[in-house]
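Office hours follow-up: a student asked to see two folded examples consecutively, so here they are.
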Amino acid sequence: MRGDVFVNNMTIERGALVYEGDTVYTLGRSFVVLQFTDGSKVTVRPDSQLVLDKYRSNKVQLDLVSGGLRVVTGAIAKSNPENYKVSTKTALMGVRGTEFSVQIVD
């Protein structure tokens, strides 16, 4: 984590926990790496907003509202790739690989 990172409008520090339904915000020149229990790592890039719509033992749904992210998938995407999804305001992506990036350009 570097810079100004917020979860549900509250400043967080390294090691903070995030939960299903939380919204993660980063400001300019800031980023955070979220590590999930299945081994997934999601890097939320500067000036981004990410909603953790669903995170269950067998299903992940991330909603990228603005900015960008980089994902290295874990056990859920490997065992149930159809259950790992990332959505934006214009697209819904199913994950079929182990590493990918998404960037919203306005």
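And the second, which I mentioned at the end of office hours:
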Amino acid sequence: GAMVTDRVLTVTSDPHPSGAGVLHVSGELDQHTAPRLREALEALPIESGVVIDLAELTYCDSSGITVLAQTQQRALAEHGFLSLVGLNPDLMNLFRIIGLDEVFTFHSTVDSAIRRLRAT
């Protein structure tokens, strides 16, 4: 039969020459896959800056948002920097509805996020 790949989340770490950690996240972020993202984020040096590229995220539920919010809290606590990149309009709208659009720093590209990071 046809192979069914459900609930697939791919997290690719792509260290930037500036020292910042860049994570490319694609697929579905839900309660089943959120722990994978959390693990990947915990491995990154938040004080050097972390950029999460969500351009290829097809689905995100509250557990995914919780992981992102916890990472933002960690960034603030450890004087680090977190930037979210490439959010589609649906996802941006979701952040706005739950009032988190004020909490995160958003950029359209990884490069602009890194430039902002290096300016701080």
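Two things to take away from it. The mean pLDDT is 91. Residues 62-77 form the longest helix (16 residues).
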